[in-house]
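Lecture 7 notes: from sequence to structure.
We start with the chain below.
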Amino acid sequence: MTLNNTNAKLTIHSTQVVMGEEQSSLSNEEAFYTKKGDKYYVLYHERDENGHAENKVQLIIAKDGVTVTRSGAVSARLVYHINEKTETNYRLVYGILNVEVFTRKIEFSENPDGFYLEMDYDISIGEEKLKTCLKITVEKKEQ
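Predicted C-alpha cells for the same chain:
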C-alpha cells in the first residue's frame, strides 16, 4: 500500500525543568505526514547546529498514545501513554542510557491544514528527572 505523504512544516517547542531551572528550545523542520486509519505518521530529520541531518525521527500518533522512534546518531523508541511509565534504552555514540518516561498528559487536535500535539511527561535517567512539555505543530505546506 502506498501512503499519500503530505509536505509539512513541523514546529517543535520543548520546555524542560532540570533541577529547578527551566530550559526551552524551538525548532522548525521540514516533514512529511500521512494519515492511515486513525493514526498519523510523521517523518522528519533532526539537525545539528550546522544544519546536518543527525537523526531520522518517526512519530506515530494514535488515540491511545504516541510513539517516537529515532535512528542515526541516537537510537531510541519512546512510547507515551497517559498515566503510564514506560522504559527504553537510548543508544548514543558513547554508550547506552536506560530511560524511564511517565506521561501526564497528551492532547491532540486536528484541523484542515494539519494538527497540534501537546505532551507533558517526566524523563528519568538514573537519579536525574526532567519535567518536559512538548508542543508540536504540523502545518501542510502549499504545493
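Points to note: DSSP finds no helices and ten strands in the chain. The radius of gyration is 15 Å.
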